[in-house]
From TrEMBL:
InterPro entries: Actin (IPR004000), ATPase_NBD (IPR043129). SUPFAM superfamilies: Actin-like ATPase domain. It holds the Pfam family Actin. Belongs to the actin family. It comes from Drosophila madeirensis (Fruit fly). The lineage of its organism: Eukaryota, Metazoa, Ecdysozoa, Arthropoda, Hexapoda. This is Actin-related protein 8. Transmembrane segments: none annotated. Residues 1-20, 426-449 are annotated as: Disordered. CDD domains: ASKHA_NBD_Arp8-like.
C-alpha cells in the first residue's frame, strides 16, 4: 500500500493558512459516537462521560400525527409470532445439545443442564416484592424522576420514559447498526439526523462537560469513526464539528486504529462488538488494512432479544416486559445481560438471581428468578447465529465500498478525477484509456515533484478473486459481489469466529496472518461478557492450521472505552500535528484536506 505526497506547489498553498499550535489536552474533546451510547470527554480525563446517544422532542398533538420512536433494541423479525417461536425453539434445542457435549473438567465429565420446565416451576411462583428506593437515590430525586415540562430530553430522562409517557415525544437515535440512521419517516433525513447529533453533542458539552458553545473556538475535537464508512457522512461530520459546532480544528480516526493505541499494541486484529454492530479490522503500523474490514449487523442488542426469549421460556416473572414499547424495559434487559450472561461451560445448574425495577407510580420492586443455561446460551448466539434469526435472517457482512461507487458532488478530486488526470507511462489517463492494451494491468503512476494533483495509489484496491476464502483451511464461505458485500452460506448470519477468519485471511502475507492470529483484541461495550475471549480463541484454534498460535485477549479496562482512550492518546502525540484540519482550512479547501491529511486512505 503506497500513498504519494502532495506536490510542493499544493502543499505550499495549504501551509500558508496552517498554524502550528501547542497541544493542550484540556482543550481537546474526544468524541466516540455509537449506536446506543456516546462517549465524550477531554483528552486529559481518566474516563469519558457515557450517555445515551438519543434525543427526545416534545411533540404537539395534532390529528393524524403519530409519535415516532426509534427502538433501543433491534426489532424482532416481521413474521408470524407463532412461527418465530417454533423456529427459535428448534435452534435452542440444537444449541442446548452443543452445550451438553462440553467437557467441564479433566475427568471428561459432561455438563448437566437444568430443564426450562423445572426453572419455570420456580419462576412462575415468584412474586415481586416492594422495596424502598435504592440508597444512592434520594427521595427528592425519586419524586423528580422525569421532567415532563422539558421540551427536549436527553440521556437518563429518555431511559425513564414509560410506554405511557413516551407517547408525548418523538425519540431519535441518530446512529443505527453503525451508520447514520437515515430513513423516510419523521425526522429521518440526513440533515435532520445531523441536527439530532448536534443537539446531543451540544447537551453533552454544555450540561455535562460545562463547556459553553461559544468557547469551542479555542477547543479541538477528535472524532472516532467506523472502519467501514460512507465518505459523504465523514464530510458531514467534519462540517458539523468545524462549522456548526465551531471547533477550532479536528481530525478523524478509525475506531480499530484508536483501539490499538488504547491497548498499547502496534498490530492486531481488532474485534469491536457494539450494541448493534460488530466490526473487525486488521491493523498494522497504525493502518487499517482495507480488505480486512468487515462489519456484521448484530451486536449486544440482538443478544438482549435472545436472552428475553430464553427467559420467557423458563417463566420470566416480569411478564409485562416489552422492550419494543418501553425504554425502561429495554434498559433492564441490557443490565440483565451484563449481570447474568457468561460463556463459562463449567458453570451449570440453576442459579438464583435478583433484579430491581421502578414502576411508573414510583414504587420499586424486587424480582427473584432462577436461570440455567439461558445465561450461556444467549451469548452463544455470536457463534450459533441461527439464534439471531429472531431479529432478521437476511443480514449481510459489509466491507468498505470502493471510492468509485461513493460519488460525492462536492468532491472535485474523486477517484474518477484521479483516474482521468493521473499519469500512466508518461501519458494522461484520458489518452491512455484508448490504448489497445486496455485489459492489461495498469502500471502504477509515477510520482513527480511538479505534479499539481495528489495521486493516491492503493495496491490493495486490486479486485480479489470471487469467493476468496479467509479461513485457515481455505474454506469458501463467502460469495463476493461487486458492491463489497459478502454473504455467508445460504443467506445465514455470519458467526463471529468465521468473520475473524475471513478478516485475517485477507491479509497480504502469511507472516502478517500469523501476527494477526497471535494478537486478536476484543473491545466494545458488548465484549465484556465473561469467557467470551476464551470461547472465541477455542473456536478459531480448531479451524486454523497446526502450529499457528491464536491469542484472543482484552485489556484490563472497560472494553467500551478502549477506542476513546486510544483517540485521546493520539490527540496529544507530536506526530499527530499534521493530522489536524483547522476551520479556516476546511472552509477554504474542503474535502481535499481529508484526502491529504486523514490517517486512513480516502
Amino acid at each position: 500500500m503506497q500513498r504519494s505526497r502532495a506536490s510542493s506547489t499544493s502543499s505550499g498553498r495549504l501551509q500558508a493558512s496552517q498554524q502550528v499550535q501547542p497541544l493542550d489536552a484540556p482543550k481537546i474533546i474526544v468524541i466516540h459516537p455509537g449506536s446506543q451510547h456516546l462517549r465524550i470527554g477531554r483528552a486529559c480525563d481518566l474516563n469519558p462521560l457515557t450517555l445515551l446517544h438519543a434525543v427526545a422532542y416534545k411533540r404537539k398533538h395534532q390529528e393524524g400525527d403519530w409519535p415516532y420512536h426509534d427502538p433501543m433494541l433491534p426489532s424482532l423479525d416481521n413474521i408470524n409470532p407463532a412461527q418465530l417461536q417454533v423456529e427459535f425453539e428448534e435452534q435452542r434445542l440444537i444449541a442446548s445439545r452443543i452445550l451438553q457435549n462440553c467437557v467441564i473438567d479433566d475427568k471428561q465429565r459432561l455438563r448437566v443442564a437444568t430443564p426450562p420446565q423445572q426453572l419455570a416451576h420456580f419462576n412462575r411462583k415468584s412474586v415481586a416484592e416492594k422495596i424502598p428506593p435504592p440508597g444512592n437515590l434520594s427521595e427528592e430525586r425519586n419524586r423528580q424522576w422525569l421532567d415532563r415540562g422539558a421540551s427536549v430530553l436527553f440521556d437518563e430522562q429518555i431511559l425513564r420514559l414509560s410506554t405511557f409517557d413516551a407517547r408525548d415525544y418523538d425519540i431519535h437515535f441518530p446512529i443505527q447498526r453503525g451508520e447514520l440512521n437515515v430513513h423516510r419517516q419523521k425526522g429521518g433525513s440526513l440533515q435532520c439526523t445531523l441536527q439530532h447529533m448536534e443537539r446531543i453533542w451540544s447537551y453533552a458539552l454544555e450540561a455535562r462537560l460545562k463547556i459553553h458553545l461559544r468557547d469551542l473556538r479555542s477547543h479541538s475535537a477528535v472524532l472516532v469513526v467506523n472502519d467501514v464508512y460512507v465518505r459523504r457522512h465523514l464530510r458531514e461530520f467534519m462540517s458539523l464539528l468545524l462549522q456548526r459546532l465551531g471547533f477550532q480544528r479536528c481530525f478523524l480516526v478509525q475506531d480499530s486504529v484508536a483501539s490499538t493505541y488504547g491497548a498499547g499494541i502496534g498490530f492486531g486484529c481488532v474485534v469491536d462488538i457494539g450494541a448493534q454492530k460488530t466490526s473487525i479490522a486488521c491493523i498494522e503500523d497504525g493502518i487499517s488494512q482495507l480488505h480486512s474490514r468487515v462489519r456484521l449487523q448484530y451486536g449486544g442488542g440482538d443478544i438482549n432479544q435472545v436472552l428475553l426469549m430464553l427467559l420467557r421460556k423458563c417463566g420470566f416473572p416480569y411478564r409485562e416486559c416489552s422492550v419494543q414499547d418501553s425504554y425502561v424495559d429495554a434498559r433492564l434487559m441490557d443490565k440483565l445481560k451484563e449481570r447474568f450472561c457468561h460463556l463459562n461451560a463449567k458453570v451449570c445448574g440453576a442459579q438464583e438471581k435478583q433484579f430491581h425495577l421502578r414502576k411508573q407510580n414510583g414504587q420499586w420492586l424486587r424480582y427473584t428468578l432462577q436461570v440455567g443455561d439461558e445465561a450461556i446460551m444467549a451469548p452463544l448466539a455470536f457463534f450459533h447465529t441461527e439464534l439471531l434469526n429472531i431479529t432478521g435472517k437476511a443480514r449481510k457482512a459489509l466491507t468498505q465500498q470502493p471510492p468509485q461507487e461513493q460519488y460525492d458532488c462536492e468532491d472535485c478530486f474523486d477517484a474518477e478525477y484521479l483516474r482521468e488526470t493521473g499519469r500512466k507511462n508518461g501519458a494522461r489517463g484520458a489518452d491512455a484509456s484508448v490504448a489497445p492494451h486496455l485489459n492489461q494491468p495498469r502500471p502504477l503512476p509515477p510520482i513527480t515533484a511538479d505534479d499539481e494533483e495528489l495521486n493516491v495509489v492503493d495496491q490493495d484496491d486490486q479486485p480479489m478473486s470471487n469467493g476468496m476464502a479467509m479461513g485457515g483451511h481455505g474454506q469458501k464461505h463467502f460469495t463476493d459481489t461487486t458492491n463489497g458485500i459478502y454473504q455467508y452460506g445460504q443467506g445465514q448470519v455470519m458467526p463471529l469466529d468465521q468473520a475473524v477468519l475471513e478478516a485475517i485471511g485477507r491479509c497480504a502475507s502469511s507472516e502478517t496472518k500469523r501476527k494477526m492470529y497471535g494478537s486478536i483484541l476484543l473491545v466494545g461495550s458488548s465484549a465484556k461478557i465473561p469467557g467470551l475471549a476464551a470461547w472465541l480463541q477455542s473456536c478459531i484454534s480448531q479451524q486454523v492450521q497446526p502450529g499457528i498460535e491464536v491469542n484472543v485477549f482484552t485489556k484490563g479496562m472497560d472494553a467500551g472505552m478502549v477506542a476513546w482512550k486510544g483517540a485521546a492518546i493520539m490527540s496529544v502525540l507530536e506526530s499527530a500535528r499534521e493530522l489536524w484540519i483547522t476551520q479556516v482550512d476546511w472552509n477554504r479547501h474542503g474535502l481535499r484536506l481529508l484526502r491529504e491529511r486523514s490517517p486512513f486512505l480516502w
